[in-house]
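re: ur question from earlier - yeah i can do the single chain one, its not a big deal. heres the input i used so u can compare w yours
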Amino acid sequence: LNLNNNHRTKSNCNLQNFSLNITYFSIKYNVVMRNIFLQILLAVIAVNAYAHEEPTVIMPFSDDPKSFLLIGNSFMYYNNSMHKPLLGIHNSIKNNTINIKARTFYINGSALSWHDVESYVNNPNAGAFKFNSQNKIEPFKDRSYDIAIMQDCSQCPIHPELSSDFHKYVKQHAQTLRNHNIEPVLMMTWAYKSQPSMIEAIAQEYTVAGNENKLLIIPAGLAFSRSMQSHPEIDLYADDKHPSREGTYLAAATIYASIFQASPVGNTYKFGIEKGVREKLQRIAWETYLGYYQKK
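and the output i got, formated as tokens:
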């Protein structure tokens, strides 16, 4: 009898241990599956966080553009102007036998509604001359532009009181430029450093405006967001809004990729940025270009 009781006790203990093991396995399995589900959910959220209407114009209409007009505000003129790295990236490539040129019209804090674009392209005195190395005045022989790149104030496209003006002046300025045989292009700006979620609405409004007016959109703002996610160690901001030198370079590299349909990866133009950081920004610009225009 004692042996039977001992046997029963051992059997009960074994059953209890087996039951505990099953329970433990069940709990562990549920935790693992829950973590997998959360990871999938977060991935889906990350993909859709910057969901926007797809652009219908995926390349410039201009063939081999050589002259640019940049119209914007301090987002463009920080770090000695965005045109400098744009020209530097293009003109540093050995097989680009013709250097591109640019003229800029910036107003600090401005919206598109502040700019008199007609005067920029129709004023005979704007860009009429330059000083050469001997301090002599030389006239500019060719003051035509192939492409004009515009950007609005950071909040204008998404502000409830200003969004309608954004769409109004994109349409108005695009028509003005086309009347002068200049292709209008929009550069999508970026979210504030403290409010990264702004980019969702910004991307949507710029893409809608581009599709409505058959404009190429340069996804600089999306490149900022991608870089912040992939390389948070690279600070793209001089403050909460304006670009650091790295931010200006990234935007220029995205312009280059979008306009010339070519990868900036491996470009040797330095812009005062160390090689490792520069290469990361070049890859971000190219990946953003491929992703935005659905080319991969």
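Residues 37-49 have pLDDT under 50 and may be disordered. not sure if urs matches, ping me
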